[in-house]
Amino acid sequence: MSKDRWSFSSEQRTARRFGQTGLLPPTAGRRRSSLFSPRRIAVLVLAAVIVLALAPVVMYQIVYADRVYLGIDSLGVDVGGYSAPEAKAALSSQFAKYAQAEMVLRYGTKEWRTTPGALGVRFDADATVRKALAAGRTGNVMEAVGEQFGLLRKAQTISPVLSFDADRQSSVTANLATEIDRPVINASLVVHPDGTVEISASQVGRKLDVAETARRVERTLATLSTTAIDVPVTETQPRVLEAQLAAAKDSAQRILQAPLTITYGSQTLVLDRTRLTSMLGFRPEGDRTVAQLDAKELTNIVNTMAEKINRSPVDAQFVFKGGKVQLATESQDGLSVDVAASVQAVAQQSLTDQRTVQLAVVVKPPKYHSSDIASIQLPNKIIEASTVYGDTGAERQHNLRLAVSRLDGNVIPPGEQFSFNKALGPTTLADGYKLAWGIIGTGSGGHETVLSEAGGICQVSTTLFHATFWAGLQIDQRTEHTYYIPRYAQPPLGRKGLDSTVDGSGSDQTLDFKFTNNTSGWLAISGWVDGQNMYFALYGIKPTWRVEASEPVITNVVKTDPTMIREFNPGLLPGQVVWVEVAQDGFNSSITRKVWDGSQLLSQMVVKSSYSPARNVENYGPPLPTPTPGVPAVGTGTPQSPGTPQPQGTPQPQATPVPPAQPTPTPKR
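The structure assignment produced for this chain is given below.
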């Protein structure tokens, strides 16, 4: 391409530039323009106008190149035209005034005066000035100039850059909480040692909301306001107010006004003010509180007094002596403290001016009164029974006489049960009995005849059993001996199988003899001995019934071994020999008793007995000492042979026995 291709005259370039658009007249390309043509003059004038118009803008940019444009303010200070240092100084001075201005934190009627500076607000002057300098300088040239013209029309406020000192705020709110916060306190009663009672005041609980307080402070400081700030506080009302304790105070003063005496009969307990104060308690009653004495402690007090007051009723005891009924033991009412009613009475009366309280006591009358003696009629001897004892040892006879004397005269009310053991009482050496031979069970059907306390009194229970059996009385409990004893089967009332053994414990134990007075009136037991026989007679209103008893039906006979068994007994005297058990066959016996009222059968019972075989047993004591030549022998001498044992009696000891070294089981005698 040649250079000439890009060579054009000015007119050609003009024609090339404008001719194609049709903006120039057709002749424009054919004649030369004048240097001062109207068009050129117009262009020059326009250019001059533009230059003159832009000059102020350019000058504005030059003058405010490092200053804040006009129309900018912050913190109420017009900083337009200020250099950065000038603006910083002016704004810092203005903020310092705000930081020292008075500010109020308020809760109810309480006020705390402080300053924004003390609340931890901090002013960042550099950052704020940078924001002021940035105004009118954002975007391209045209946008920036437009923003500058806008600031001239309407001023712009630059928000100050603030920060908050968290530690300073925490310190202020913590101090504030110290003055505001307080626990909720319920009204309460204060009882002084002297018995006076006061009501301690209640208190509304308060708790400053620290987090919300900080938020409110920051919101206020952010707007550079000095408006009073209401701090948020949570209030907790007490559950118990003074008015609710007025009744409690009154009742407490009544309780403590003077000592309180609790009494019944000879039992008296005085509760002084100190004790009453320690027992004072309170309980809600509707919307109020009342004072009262502690129910648990009152119950303990009443129970302690009740232990000394309570007693079971005592029935009158009668004795039949010399054909007459006599009063042996006076009747006595029973007493029982009603603990619940007494506690209630004490609690109620403690609130009154009457300071003596009677315990609530229930009187329990006895079943039989002393006055009943007038109604006891014993007109008839209903029956008499006897057994022989005169051929037995002295110790055994002593026990029988003592036991009979203690049963003699017992009077049994109609419908009541008689217990042999209970009526007899304890049967120990300490109670006057002696050692005599008795039978004990050794288990598995075995037995032994040994020395025991009150040995032999089973003859007493057997004799009384005979009387009650043939009188037609209701037999409630009876136990046969381990082996058969012939003396208990002697006529007129004895039968082979009519015996009764007891353990003699004096209490209601298994081995007891019991019967019920099922006659229409009172019943008396009369007992006596004559040196050979013992007797029991029953007195009362003779029943109209008759008694029939069958002969014994004997079965299961077991023959005994008559071989003599010799056993050493350290309880015997030196050289002493005693035949303690006589061989007897074992067997079962059954006797049927019927009680008739005319042709009507009133009752029927079968007395069953089962006896083990008895053996021939001889006990011997330690040997006699060897005599020294020339010195008379000391001892019991040669023992007498007991000879052939008599079948009708129990063998007896030949001398006063010595108690065995070891205790023996309770015997069946």
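Interim note for the steering committee: The chain has a mean pLDDT of 85. The longest strand covers residues 586-597.
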